[in-house]
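Issue: ligand-bound run for magnesium ion - logging full I/O for the record.

Environment: standard queue, default settings, no custom constraints.

Inputs:
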Amino acid sequence: MNVLELRDVSIIYQNTKEAVKHVSFAVPEGKIVAIVGESGSGKSTLIRAAIGLLPAGGELASGQILFGEKDMAAMTAEELRHVRGEGMAMIFQNAGDYLNPRRKVCDQYVETLRCHQSMTKKQGYEIAKKMLATLKLPDTKHVMNAYPFHLSGGMKQRVAIAMAMSMHPKLLLADEPTSALDVTVQAQVVKQMMDLRDKMGTAIVIVTHNMGVASKMADYIAVMQNGELKEFGTREQVIYHPENDYTKKLLTVVPKLQGETDGE
Ligand code: ADP
Ligand code: MG
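Outputs:
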């Protein structure tokens, strides 16, 4: 069973520019798909379309996006609201910047949790604090009581990642969640995302320009260039037997992920 399926998806901006061209692939339940490819190749556009949150001016020009067996385009506003949160959650590129600067971390975190799951404020507070600790944020009590503008960019990013992960969605979409983080923290976030999948069966689509992250995490790898899906296959197929020249070029530069060789 697929949690997400893209069928011949094309996306245009302002009726002119085709940012995604006839892309088809599926995300099986509980699997991790990494989307790699150069800047401007349509990666963000594609995953934002998957959760129905394209930037202004962007629209689905052709094709279908199915969540489970349901066509996203045919969903009512109510169904979409339900899908976002319980069904899928998204970690945007620079997600930390999307936190409300005028509200304490604990208030917005707990409120987000309570919007989607029934729990007391105290329960929400404990879940949030635990997830922040899991993502190796120091002094979680301080972080919970802070306003986002008191936190560093990397800390805000981890708060946003923690919030999305605490929702326990069926599908987590993550747009370069770790690129703003230093390598040690990056490895920790990758590990936590993989744990989430192992424990909760969360399927993940992660956009990354880091082939090291893709090769560590992914069951399947999608390679995008210029709006087109150049290659899609299992991690082994794409890493060890790439068919496309562009994929081969990407593979010549694979940064090592810290922690990869320490016997985890
Ligand atoms: P990536 O995430 O791979 O860097 P994007 O999906 O951001 O690529 O962009 C794909 C193409 O769509 C690019 O040519 C980009 O300029 C264009 N694009 C992205 N966002 C917008 C937007 N909000 N309005 C118009 N064009 C956009
Ligand atoms: Mg992008």
